[in-house]
Structures are given as structure tokens and as C-alpha cells.
Amino acid sequence: MKGVLLTISASARGESGTVFASNGSPRTGDPTKNLPSVAITAENYNRIARLLEHDVPVKLSFDIKTQFDTSNTDSFNVIAEIPGATKPNELVMVGGHFDSWHMGTGATDNGAGSAVAMEVMRILKSLNLKMDRTVRMALWGGEEEGLLGSAAYVKEPLRRSHHHETGRPSTTASPATFNIDNGTGRIRGIYLQGQ
User: Fold this and answer.
1) Strands, E, within 14-143: which ranges?
2) What would the pLDDT profile of 6-62 be if each residue is shown by its tens digit?
3) Which segments within the chain are labelled E, that is strand?
4) Rounded to two decimals, what is the model's pTM?
5) Is 60 domain-assigned?
6) Which domain range does residue 86 map to?
7) Residue 163 DSSP one-character state
8) Angle 28-192-160 (CA atoms, 0-180°, nearest 5)?
């Protein structure tokens, strides 16, 4: 794509001036090397497409100014657990990501998933169940910037080893992990995301 200055997109969901935007830029590497991505209304996008299909020249003008603030790049994960009774070193994990992003609503991406994970832990604790395995909640920070929180959790085993009554750190064996990050509403199934 030599000579390309930027990409233009429009979401099929947008109408009457509503713009849904999400670019496909890489989450790793130097972000200043990514092409600018501009989202416009479906009406304007379709008009441009029709003009180009009829060989009518289209001239677009953009004034894009971007700054990257890297003065504070700290993030954090939120971890909580209920120790298992007979197999405390085996984990069942529940969670989602705790951060949001500039085009997200925050409430659905992913405040809703974080609230569900916390509610799962509250209910399990209030029922005082004698569960065999440890249930651990993990709410990731920096997910929208490149899965940073979950990657840091995996890379730093000393920080994620929790000591139970035995005094031994828990292992990473996890027979199940439930990650909630698909918006609000009833959970009607399991989305494997291509797995």
C-alpha cells in the first residue's frame, strides 16, 4: 500500500450521523508508524464509494494532529480469590479487563464484565460454599493497549502466587477460565473467539 496516507472506514451499524469506529492498527511496535484511520458516517462513506464507482474524482482534506503521552504508563491488575478446600492449588479463574479505551463506552467495554466477575465472587463468598478448587478473579489493566495486564500476570509468577493456609504458593493449573468481555445482557453461551 505504498503512497497510502490514511484509511477511511464506516461501520454498518452507524446511521443518521452516528459513527462507530475501530481501527485495525497493531497493538505492538511503534504507534507513530501506524497509518491514521478516520471513521466517517455511513452516508458520507457510501456517497464517496458511489462517486468513485462512477469515476467521479473525490478530494478529501484532513487535518490530523496526534500526541502520545507516555509520561505515566503504569497500570495494575485487580486480583481476588477464594481458596479451595481440597484442591487449593487448582484454579478456576473468572474475570475480564478493567480498563476502557477512547472509542469505548467504558460501561460495556468492560465495566459490565468487571461487575459480573465481582458479583460472581460476592455470591460465592456469601454462600460460604466449600469449593474444592480455588476461585480467582482477575481484572486486567492495559488490555485495550495490547493485552498488557494479562501478559504481565503470566510473565510474573511470583506476583501471582498466593499463599494459602498450607503456606505453599498456588500453582497455575487452571481447569477453567471464564473471561467476560462481550457487553451487557444475559450470558447466552460461550464465545471461543476462534479457538
Assistant:
1) 37-39, 78-82, 87-97, 133-140
2) 888 887 776 677 777 766 677 777 877 888 888 888 889 999 999 999 999 999 999
3) 7-9, 37-39, 78-82, 87-97, 133-140, 176-179
4) 0.71
5) yes
6) 78-179
7) B
8) 60
Active site residues: 143
* Backbone φ, ψ for residue 190 (5° rounding): -115, 125
What is the count of structural domains for the chain?
2
141 dihedral zone (left: phi>0; alpha: psi -120 to 50; beta): beta
On whether both 108 and 174 belong to a single domain, the answer is: yes
d(CA 38, CA 190): 33
Longest CA–CA separation in the chain, Å: 75
With beta carbons less than 8 A apart as the criterion, state whether 75 and 100 touch. no
Query: How far, in Å, CA of 47 to CA of 95, rounded?
Result: 43
User: How many C-beta neighbours within 10 Å does residue 4 have?
Assistant: 7
Burial class of residue 152 (count of CB atoms within 10 Å of its CB; 0-12, 13-18, 19+): middle
Give the model's pLDDT for residue 114.
92
Do 172 and 82 sit in the same domain of this protein? Answer: yes
Return d(Cα 129, Cα 85) in angstroms, integer: 9
Q: How confident is the model at residue 182 (pLDDT cuts 50, 70, 90)?
A: confident
Grade residue 173 by pLDDT with cuts at 50, 70 and 90. Answer: low
Backbone φ, ψ for residue 67 (5° rounding): -125, 145
